[in-house]
Amino acid sequence: MKKALLILITLTLSHFALAQFTLKGRVTDKSGNPIAGASVTEKGTTNGNSTNANGYYSFKCSSQTATIVFSNVGYFDHEEKLNGQTTLNATLDENTSSLAEVEVVGTRNLKRSVTDSPVPVDLIPVSKIANATGMVDINTILQYAAPSFNANKQSGSDGADHIEPATLRGMGPDQTLVLINGKRRHQSSLVNLYGTRGRGNTGTDMNAIPSASIERIEILRDGASAQYGSDAIAGVINIVLKQSTDKLDLNFTAGGNSTGYGGSLESGSDMILKSIWDGKQYSGNVNYGLKVGSKGGFFNITGDIDHKDKTYRPNYTTLYPDNYRAEFGDASYTNYSFMLNSRIPLKKDAEVYFFGGLNKRDGDAFAWTRDPESERNVIEIYPNGFNPHIGSNITDYSGSGGVRTKIWGWNSDFNATYGRNRFEYDVTHTLNASLEAASPTSFKAGGFYLGQFDVSANFSKTLQKALNGNGISLAWGLEFRNEQYKIFAGNEDSWKQYGPVIFSIDNTTTPPDTTFRPGGAQGFPGFQPKDVISQSRNNIGGYLDTEFDLTKEWMVAAAIRFENYSDFGSTTNFKIATRYKASPNVNIRGSFSSGFRAPSLPQIAFSSTFTNVAAGKIVDQVIAPNHSDLAFKAGIPRLKEEKSLNASLGFTAKPINNLSLTFDGYWVQVKDRIVLTGLFTSDDDVIGSTLEEMNVGAAQFFTNAVDTRTYGLDIITSYAIPLGANTLNTTFAANFNKMELDAIHTTPALEGKEDIYFGPREKSFLLASAPHFKINLSFDYRMKKSEIFLRFNQFSGVDLTNWNDKVDEYAAKVTTDLSYSYTFNKHVNFTVGGNNIFDVYPSHHDPAATESGGMWDAVQMGFSGAYFFGRFGFNF
């Protein structure tokens, strides 16, 4: 296969010809002013370029009868046929109805493009990637499209099996702010407690948003708390929904995992190598847009259904006799999504808009094995032991609406947004051992939900004549946000410890079992009445955001934001950024900012008595709410905000036609990061007596315990190589990242207990939140009706400390993705391909010592093996 790939690349390069010619011209607005950063492309091809600071462009064009497309944010698209011309100028009309809506994240200057932004912004074309790779969920798409983004499926991690935590630049899942159409998206109600990534953190369930509804995803790789508020320490992800009309898109994808990891990993073993085909996935989506009126109004609607079966990755008992997971692999799920995006013009400078959606997901995941002889099993029910399954019922809905208009020359946006995420556990294939043979085998275990209501008023204006005509962009706004968090209890038999049971079968009385058998649903005991909580808080904030074009070459941006939280107080943050055009094709950019992240309500209020597994031993433990009597008596302080400083420096360049380069270095310092402590037991010499006094055997707490520094480098280069009448697009994207732990802050009473408060295992999992480097090299070759996509993904090695306090080394790996697409006509296309086609896995380790209880923790490319797919697309 590798030889075939090399032959394929060689053949495509051999098609190079000199039939193309150079097309050049200038793009201006109606006043004759140059438009910088406008996109100029040859329709139906990837040939094109963007305009420089003076509005000029040039690129290799394949036909003198081609249609040329001109586009830029804030202007109407313009198409024009060449008719033999080699020079083509264009004038773009300002799209006043959408100026306030289409903005690039990271700047509130509505005419600023990505190319001249003072901070790095990635634009991810979701539909294109989904078609080329068969990927349908947002986390997976971004995992391979954006090197600084990391998300891995987990196994045996309770709720994280159903909502996998994702990180940007290796920071926490809750340190990246997610927006939809520029409006704050609510977080998930899940706080990650167990697993190899994001423990102690909340995050946003991006897979609740159907990929078919998305036009593009913008990733701001820079701290932006001063611009957008809490959670933006690592950056901002803005999801831009589709606005297309009079177009019906239908897509159907089917695929599955195929692997040879069904047998031995070592020669000489008595196990036989066999192939596995599982993880079958079926997905279908539809998108359609309706025009409303004649001034750009629309309704764009998306429906999506996605089902995926489990993957089964056995633990090799010949190699590792201590097997605590008879069932190990990805969870199964069925996901239903609906999304609406709309805009209705009212008059010349006013419009109303609404977008929102509903997501329903039912999942089923493996828990750890209960052996037949265990006190947690009842032989009469499971003679051979059992494997509990943790099911999820997740409902997520949101709506955002508002009015955009102009007031005294200011672009004004008045918005209200509400979102809610509800997570309920169903535990099946299990029992409550204290009920003995009378136990049911499935339980409603309760859950939690998080709601967020946000009202904002935003204003922006450009003072065109200021600074000798260079202009000043001003933006300011006010925001009120209310958040609610609730925990609801499960059915009594899902959590209660019952006494010895005397029951009758066929009128014969059976004496009680004298063996102690713990109560609660095995795998995940339900939330108890004492865990039930309802908590809310308010936040009021305001910001001022400015951009100054001091000269035609030098731009400076500055922002300041004040916020006040009802539960911990006030914070003020700033940002300053600059971009200097060293030449028409080279921009130098940099920024410095402070930031913050408010503790999430789940981190403040979460409470649970649950089952955990430490080195194969099952124990019951308590996670105590931060405001509880237990936390107070143990000396755990109230949570406060995380504080950060963020600096970046980089440049963008286009040294030759069709070649672009971006290099961005970054440094992020975070103080008082919120983590989940290690387990304090009742025999602790400091707080053990407190735990005993409150009838608690072991406890964990959320606390601001850690200071970290993260620094790294992002590199993105792209080059379009003309090959005859076609083009080979190549992209090299890399992230180099390192995190260092500066300090661990214990309470005065627990000083010296750092190895429990935040021990070596927790340190290694935090520092390995992202690989030290991740590199993607992709090739995209388009012909008349065919397209070939080839991508190599390089993951660095990762080290994790296992339950035996030894380091499990996961070696560097390379995976390969390949697909072929064919367009039958303008209505039908087909793609077939595979991801990780050579079935590469992380290094394997002893499942008795790993965090997951399997041979692999949730690192790098996951543990599902090769994935092959076919995809039909229909356009009408």
Tags for this model:
876 residues; mainly beta; Immunoglobulin-like; Maltoporin, Chain A; 22-stranded antiparallel β-barrel; 5-stranded mixed beta sheet; 9 helices; 48% strand; globular; disordered N terminus; membrane; TonB-dependent receptor
Strand content: over 45%
Count structural domains: 2
Structural class: mainly beta
CATH architecture of the largest domain: Beta Barrel
Oligomeric state of the chains present here? single chain
| Biggest sheet character | 22 strands, antiparallel, barrel
Number of strands: 44
User: Which residues form runs of ≥5 with pLDDT under 50?
Assistant: 1-19, 96-102, 108-113, 262-273
Name of the CATH superfamily of the largest domain: TonB-dependent receptor, beta-barrel domain
Give the class-level CATH name of the largest domain.
Mainly Beta
Cα gyration radius (Å): 28 Å
Number of helices: 9
CATH topology of the largest domain: Maltoporin, Chain A
Shape: globular
Mean pLDDT: 86
Terminal CA distance: 37 Å
The share of residues in helices is: under 10%
